[in-house]
Amino acid sequence: MAKKYLVGNTTGMKGAGIRLFEYAPQSAIEKCRIQLEAIFWLCHDSIDAVSEFEMAREEAITRKNYCLELAHDQGLLQYDELIVARLINSDQVTVCPLCLDPLSGFGFFSRLAQALGREVHDLTVTEINLFHIKELRYGQYNHRPYNLGWGHHHCNVVVKDSGIDETLIWMSSVLTKNRIAGYYKPQNNDA
Known about the structure:
Layout: E1 5-7, E2 23-25, H1 26-41, H2 46-52, H3 57-73, H4 79-84, E3 128-132, E4 148-152, H5 153-159, H6 164-180
Antiparallel strand pairs: 1-2, 3-4
């Protein structure tokens, strides 16, 4: 019997940036879903966010506890691995893998503002998007636990298919060139 692979989105809704060549066996997809939800619940304000969007606070707390326990039981909540993968910080709070700022649960519900004159009626892009830690490459299996997390839409766009490390190197060179040219004058000494 041939292996079955799930490709793309099964809900009929637009996905969070999932492209056709991002595939995985059903078992890996299920693990990713469990881990991604657990990472959501590690946002500092996840309970408040879902409570504001029609989930009773008690139900939210129950769901959070259930998801974190399920992820833990399946080996998907290894905090040291999540930190190394840039998915959470040392306080075990969900962060954007590029800028490392803590993510807000509200960002999952917040649609991005549209540029004047470029509005579309079916905007589904939220502030927080699915984020691959190790960038997608044809012929590589990147849709797996500890490689998928949540990040800012803008940071994800900046990283593109270059990957986090390559993007940081590029960003550093851009800052250096702009400092040398006199265009970038940081207000403090940490830049």
